[in-house]
Design brief:
The chain is globular and about 80 Å long. Helix content is 34%, strand content 24%. It contains 14 helices and 22 strands. Strand 2, helix 2 and strand 3 form a beta-alpha-beta unit. It has an 8-stranded mixed beta sheet, sandwiched between helices.
Length: 396
């Protein structure tokens, strides 16, 4: 069955992206009807929106003289999803406070369908306390959000406030139109990337983890409906849509963030946490000297996986990762028993898995090991999300 959306186009420079969104939605078989606010018509014309969507573009509540054509109540309920892009600070404020002063805000108040907003505004407007209060209210009311992204703006300022790109919005639309996923109602925690342990202000102990597998798993869990928190060490990756990202640097910071995220139903710890840190990092840059390299006193970092296994708020399903260079299955099984987790996902990193887009993993449980063929990291993540869903069903 074909799906349809009601697209509300607010008055912002990002409104031009709505035209691309309509075109891409049409390519995916998603029918679009549109409302353009009065300010929105300063940026896109009803004619261009109508030409792309194949439907009349509505602008004025009082132009709906013939209610048999498409009244505002019917307009707000005939679609499967209401999308606001761009969602200006003004539109967000009206929706948060239940105002109905024009066709767009009246339709938002009258709809009984899910609502997705793609905010777009100046960084100062986005960070303003009033906007953040409205954001919290809308989220509490069940409104979904995509973006905003960070970057340069038309006003020559930089920061969060750029509207998400049409492809990102389309992906969020498709997730919502697909309905509740198999992990709907599940809370998930994922760690990813390396940790950096400072030796001095410019140097650190670290490793080659790219974070790609962890980010893919967080994305797959979110797409399956889980409320997902991703705790990430330093990586060069864009955060997955629909995921709450917490950025950390050190193992101690990651441990604290993990414990603060509890309770969760499932935790997948893919992060390559440094085993050691400097006992006393230097306050200034360590210099070369004729006496040779400096002596570094190291101390052991906390075992985050074992800590969660023994935590009073232990996740229902606790999954660790084991990056090994030899005896992968044996070391993985030993690690699962020693750490006290439910599963270990072991992989052989001797062949240069770090930073690549593919992985070969072995899922080790109390029942034995299941070896998967070489797959893309996205495919590994999707397959793992399915396995997690089935395991949690059994627990429930």
């Amino acid at each position: 069955m074909s799906k349809s959306i009601l697209l509300i186009i607010g008055g912002g420079i990002a409104a031009y992206k709505s035209l691309e969104l309509i075109r891409r939605a049409k390519e995916r078989g998603i029918d679009t009807r549109a409302i353009i606010t009065k300010a929105g018509t300063e940026f896109v014309t009803p004619l261009s929106v109508s030409a792309l969507s194949g439907h009349k573009a509505y602008t004025d509540m009082f132009s709906l003289v013939d209610e048999t054509e498409m009244g505002h109540i019917q307009l707000s309920r005939v679609a499967d999803l209401v999308v606001v892009a761009p969602a200006t600070a003004n539109l967000m404020a009206k929706a948060a406070n239940g105002l109905a002063s024009d066709l767009a805000s009246t339709s938002l108040l009258a709809t009984d369908k899910p609502v997705l907003m793609a905010p777009a505004m100046n960084v100062r407007m986005w960070n303003h306390a009033a906007t953040q209060r409205n954001l919290a209210t809308l989220k509490a009311d069940g409104v979904h959000f995509v973006g905003p992204n960070e970057g340069a703006m038309a006003c020559n300022e930089f920061g969060p406030g750029r509207m998400a790109e049409p492809q990102e919005i389309l992906e969020a639309i498709e997730r919502l139109l697909a309905g509740p996923g198999p992990l709907s109602g599940v809370k998930a925690l994922v760690t990813a990337g390396p940790t950096h342990e400072p030796l001095d202000p410019v140097r650190f102990l670290g490793n080659r983890s790219s974070g790609k597998q962890g980010y893919a798993i967080a994305r797959a869990l979110a797409e399956a409906g889980a409320e997902t928190t991703l705790i990430s060490g330093p990586v060069a990756l864009a955060p997955p849509q629909g995921v709450r990202l917490i950025e950390v640097e050190t193992a101690l910071e990651m441990q604290a963030a993990c414990e603060a995220a509890l309770p969760v139903d499932v935790a997948v710890l893919t992060a390559a946490v440094a085993d050691w840190r400097a006992q006393s990092p230097a306050n200034s840059k360590l210099k070369k000297s004729d006496s040779g390299p400096p002596s570094l006193a190291l101390t052991e970092n906390p075992d985050i996986l074992a800590g969660l296994a023994n935590h009073a708020k232990r996740p229902t399903l606790l999954i660790g990762f084991a990056a090994e260079t030899e005896n992968v299955l044996a070391y993985g099984a030993e690690k699962r028993a020693r750490k006290g987790c439910d599963w270990i996902v072991a992989n052989d990193v001797s062949t240069g898995v770090f930073g690549t887009d593919h992985n070969t993993v072995h899922v080790i449980t109390a029942q034995g090991a299941e070896s998967w063929p070489e797959l893309s990291k996205d495919a590994v993540a999707t397959r793992l999300a399915v396995r997690i869903s089935k395991a949690l069903e059994k627990v429930a």
